[in-house]
Each structure stands twice: as C-alpha cells, then as structure tokens.
Design a protein that fits this description.
The complex is a heterodimer. In chain A, α3 packs across α4 and α6 runs antiparallel to α7. Chain A starts with 9 loop residues before the first helix and ends with a helix. In chain A, about 70% of the residues lie in helices and about 0% in strands. Chain A has one domain. By secondary structure, chain B is mainly alpha-helical. Chain B folds into two domains: about 100 residues, Orthogonal Bundle (Rna Polymerase Sigma Factor, Chain: A); about 60 residues, Winged helix-like DNA-binding domain superfamily/Winged helix DNA-binding domain (Arc Repressor Mutant, subunit A, Orthogonal Bundle), CATH 1.10.10.10. Chain B is about 70% helix and about 0% strand. In chain B, α3 crosses α4. Chain B is globular. Classes of the chains: A mainly alpha, B mainly alpha. The interface between A and B is large, with 45 and 55 residues.
Amino acid sequence: MNTGKLKKYAKIIEQLEALPDRSPPPGLKGSVMTRLEETRLPQAHVQGGMLSCVRNIFAPAGKETSGKSVCFLYYMMTGLFYLIIGVALIAGMEKTGVGRDAGWLSLQPYMALGIALWLFVLGFTLALDGRKGLKIVKYGTLLYISAAVFFSLVLQPYLLVPHAALFIAGLTAAGVIMGVSLLESVRKMELISF
Amino acid sequence: MNQKTDAQIVAEVLHGNRGAYAHLVDKYKGPVFNLALGMTGNYHDAEDLAQETFIRAYEKLNLFDEDRKFFTWLYTIGINLIRNHLKKKRAETSAAKLFAHRPPRPSGGGTGGEARQDDALGLEKALLRLKPEVRQAIILKYRQGLTFEEVAEITASSVSAVKMRIYRGLSALKGMMKE
C-alpha cells in the first residue's frame, strides 16, 4: 500500500493523534513494585545450546529459562523419533525383504524420514526466527498432524495382522498427541517469551 | 543527570537491583496504560492489564534481547495479554459499557470544547468497534506514535499487512464518524 493513499484520511489521523492521553492510575507503579516483592527475580544469564535445553526440560514448572529452547528441543526429539523409525524400517526391509514390493507400504520409511526432516525444519525455524516463525511453525505442525493421521489410515489395508485396526488407532493417536503437544509447547513459548 | 538506557536498567535489575525496575515502570506506565485503555475501553481492565504487563515483563526479563528496543518488547507482551483478555471478554464488551468507568475529562471550556470532546469520545467509541488486530495497529501507529516497522515487529506481522490494516481501519473509522 502506498502511504500516499493515507492522505485522504488526514483529518481522521489528525483527530486520532489529538486524542488526549489519560493519566495512568496514581497507584500503578506502587502496585507493580509491591507485587514484584513476591515475584522471583529473573536470572541474569541465559546460556543457549543443548545443555540449556536439557536443563530447561528438567526444570520445575515455571522455572524454565527459555521457552524457545525447550520448544526447539521438543521438535528435535519428535523428529528424531521419526528418523529412528524411518531408518529402522529401511534397514528392516533391506534385510528381510518384507514390504519391499508392497506399494504404499514400501514408501512408509521414506514418509517417516520426510516427517523427521519436516519437524527438524520447524524446530530450526523456531530457533532462528522465534516470533516471526511462530505462524509457520503452527501451520507446519498442523500439516504434520494431518500427514501422520493420513499415513496411518492408508496403511490399514496393507496390514494383514490380527488387531490391525487397534494398531492403526494407536499409531494415529500417537501422531495426534505428539502434534497437539508440540502445538501446546509453541503456545506456551509464545506466552513465556513474548 | 546521567540518563541510563533501558538496556542498562534491565542489566541492573538482572544483577539483583529490583528497585531499578521502578524507572522502567515510571517511563512506560503511561503508554502501556493508554494502549490497554484504547484496546479495552475500560479503565479498570486497563489498569489490571498494565500491571500484568509489567509483572510479566519482569518475570521474563532474562529473555529480553538487548538487540531489540525495550518498549517494543514490552508492548509485545502487553498486546498479547490484551488480546487474550479481549478473547475472554468478547461477549461482555458492548458499546454501552465502553468508557463507563473513566474518570471525568477536564473541562474544554465552552461549546467548541464540548463539541471537540464529543468528537473525541465518538472516535474512541468508533475505534472500539474495529477488529482487535486493526484497532491495535491504529492505536500503535497514531496514538503511540510508532513507525510501521515497529508496529509490524510488535504484532508479528509484515509491514505491508500492518499498512493494509491501518488503511482498512482508517476507512472504517471515517465511515463510522460520518454516521
């Protein structure tokens, strides 16, 4: 938008700028400072890196030093989970030959690797571009949940084992729970950090 | 008197001087309170939100990035709190209640002054009829005097999105003021 377009609103802008400021309540500063007496003093130094992330994970609730680093680690851990599944499936298929020619089933390991890569990307997006990356990460996580559910459901016809439906239900639930937990950690990070 | 920068005060607080935080509260209590008042239209809610903004900022002071301006960081915290508050209170907010608890304005002296006060009140009420994301952009830009870039940073939006919201907001305000 060209700022020149704003010229036709010059009068309304002038009125907005002329609106009088209200004085804050006289006791505001005192109330804040009194409440600070009961508030934990923030720590002076926040160390980054993996060590800090791990420390944050095991810190008591509310004592985390950085929401962003915790969130980053969650994404990395979930990504690692899918990476291990993908690698294990590829290795297993190579060795046993099971599922090699099973169409969609043979693609599953690569789907897992794709999800792992996607989660790593989201984690790094948060770490590198915290606030601005939030929207991307939220939608990216929703995409991950959809993919996890979709891949679980299309797997069902290929699973010719007893209680396959139960396995599929568990797999779907695991994907959804992990995705929702990731979204929740992002929401908390938003509240903590910004 | 040697004026300390916001970053220096933050460093002092982080090194144990809790009292230094009073300087930051003093400096920004007006803008933060007026931001909350403009967004909510309710004096008591604005007071609570301003207080909560400073407390939340204090609790997270160790996360403050020195490369950022303190006030944009503080406003970001304030805007997030205000947004959450508005979501919770959306059902309760009605034009009839707006500015119900405001202290009386200073007298304008004469009919012209009263007309200006009416215009101002009308504009404030019209502002409250805007969508929150549009209202916050207008308030930050024209009531708080921030740049488009600063508004974009605080609201986590692109500069072009901020400009578009402001344009829409001004257009809506103009329409409402004609009613």
